[in-house]
Amino acid sequence: MNLIEFKARERGIEVEMPDERGTSSACSVCGHEDEDSRVERGLWKCDRCGVVAHDDVNGADNIRQETLSVTPPLGDSDNGWLAQPSVIHFSRTRGF
User: Fold this and answer.
1) What is the rounded distance in angstroms from the CA atom of residue 10 to the CA atom of residue 8?
2) What is the rounded average pLDDT of the residues 11-29?
3) 75: pLDDT confidence band, cut at 50, 70 and 90?
4) How would you label 18-47 residue by residue, b for 16+ Cβ within 10 Å and e otherwise?
5) Is the pLDDT reported for residue 8 higher than 70?
6) How far apart are the C-alpha atoms of 39 and 24, rounded to whole Å?
């Protein structure tokens, strides 16, 4: 049992671990299946609707649609936050 399963059980939440094999061969937006959609490692593009995504994100969205009965609104799944790199300054005299 991993930490996520442990914490979920502690709170009475059921955990499903679906098989992820083959989940990135179909477009999570239009459902078009094509084994050649992986352009290169990590890059996935649908030839039918033009969606471009990270292949793991596309696969995860396919799993979400398969396992959850509630579907979020279609469109951009952005949460409005912009990822910012963390910068830690190091000084030879004072350290971090």
Assistant:
1) 5
2) 84
3) low
4) eeeeebbbbbbbeeeeeeebeeeeeebbbe
5) yes
6) 12
Reading phi first (left if > 0) and then psi (alpha if -120 to 50, else beta), residue 95 is in left
Residue 56 CA to residue 52 CA, distance in Å, equals 12
Residue 76 and residue 66 in contact, taking contact as beta carbons nearer than 8 Å: no
What does the block give as tokens for 58? 């596309």
Q: Are 48 and 32 in contact (CB under 8 A)?
A: yes
Token pair belonging to 1: 């049992």
Give per-residue pLDDT as tens, 33-72: 887 787 777 888 888 988 888 888 888 888 888 887 666 5
How many other β-carbons are positioned within 10 Å of the β-carbon of residue 59?
Answer: 20
